[in-house]
Amino acid sequence: MDIIREPRVYLVGRQIIDDAELDRFLADHDVRAWETDTDVAGQKLSEIAGRVCYMSFARPRPGGNATYLRHILEVGHGSVLEHAVWNFIFTGVSRSFTHELVRHRAGWGYSQLSQRYVDESTASFVEPDCVADDAECHAIFEAAIADAQAAYLKLVERLTTRFESVEDKTMRRKLARQAARCVLPNATETKIFVTANARALRHFIELRCNEFAEPEIRKVAARVLDVMRVEAPSLFSDYEWKALDDGSRTAHTVFHKV
Ligand SMILES: Cc1cc2nc3c(=O)[nH]c(=O)nc-3n(C[C@H](O)[C@H](O)[C@H](O)COP(=O)(O)OP(=O)(O)OC[C@H]3O[C@@H](n4cnc5c(N)ncnc54)[C@H](O)[C@@H]3O)c2cc1C
To answer: Helix (H, G, I), strand (E, B), or coil: what is residue 242?
Structure first.
């Protein structure tokens, strides 16, 4: 059985802009030409959304998209950031992690691996660093997950027999797996597809990439920030990294909860 210690963050989706429709909107509102200096659709859409509020396309202040969005952060015009949306897949994360993640409601969408449908007999497990780094703790962890997996297998076997009168094979497996999963630990690895807007991501980073957050979610939040600083610097480059004694990173900004 695989033991995982590092989460993976895949940025799998981003927006595109329909330039023809944007030009049509601008022409309909007597704006002959407007351009900005970002190719990142989420950043451009956020700027457009902000400019629609004040119809300020005609005489943009200098500084481009980064300056415009920094001003949005400064004044706390947070709803503008909800128009920038990205899609991620997180893997190598535990069920404990996703339980914390899904507490983030506003501006998030989730689709998580189903333990009712998917066979968990070969599941991997996520081990906390402080457990892995201590030989005795690690041995306790290994024994516990081996026992849990063995119990899961036995339950699936018995329950599959018990439900053998159920004709539909998929339903029969589901009935067995949905009950047997009760013995799997919080450490069981899972995968989750996540969609979030820039405002929601910033709030997540603020709450979860600091010293008070649980280490696994802090790792994921730090990776999300790594990805987003490259992906959308106008929206995410205001954070400063700080190293904690255990080597993990926290991120801090002056723009709280926009
Ligand atoms: C260090 C830490 C420890 C934690 N410990 C626990 C714990 O022991 N037990 C536990 O249950 N949770 C715990 N949490 C989770 C925490 O309570 C929040 O559920 C989680 O951080 C999501 O934050 P949020 O509600 O601000 O985010 P979101 O749900 O994304 O909401 C974003 C913002 O929208 C607004 N909002 C959203 N929904 C509502 C609403 N219904 N009414 C009014 N305003 C709303 C709020 O301003 C909120 O901040 C912990 C979180 C942290 C960071």
So the answer is: strand
* CA dist., res. 97 & res. 226, Å (int): 19
Is 149:1 a contact under the CB 8 Å cutoff? yes
Residue with CA at minimum distance from ligand 1 atom 7: 100
Report the alpha-carbon distance of residue 238 to residue 168 in Å, rounded.
54
Task: Say if CB 126 and CB 5 are below 8 A apart.
Answer: yes
pLDDT tens profile 23-61: 999 999 999 889 999 999 999 999 999 999 999 998 888
d(CA 157, CA 169): 14
- Best residue among 105, 214, 216, 256 to mutate for probing ligand 1, ranked by most atoms within 8 Å of CB: 105
Q: Alpha-carbon distance 159 to 176, whole Å?
A: 5
For the question of whether the overall pTM of this predicted structure is more than 0.85, the answer is: yes
Predicted pLDDT at 246: 85
Identify which of 113, 131, 133, 132 has the alpha carbon closest to the alpha carbon of residue 123: 113
Q: Is 205 in the pocket of ligand 1 (CB under 6 A)?
A: no
User: Is the CB–ligand 1 distance for residue 104 below 6 Å?
Assistant: yes
Compute the Cα dihedral for 166, 169, 172, 176 and give only its sign: positive
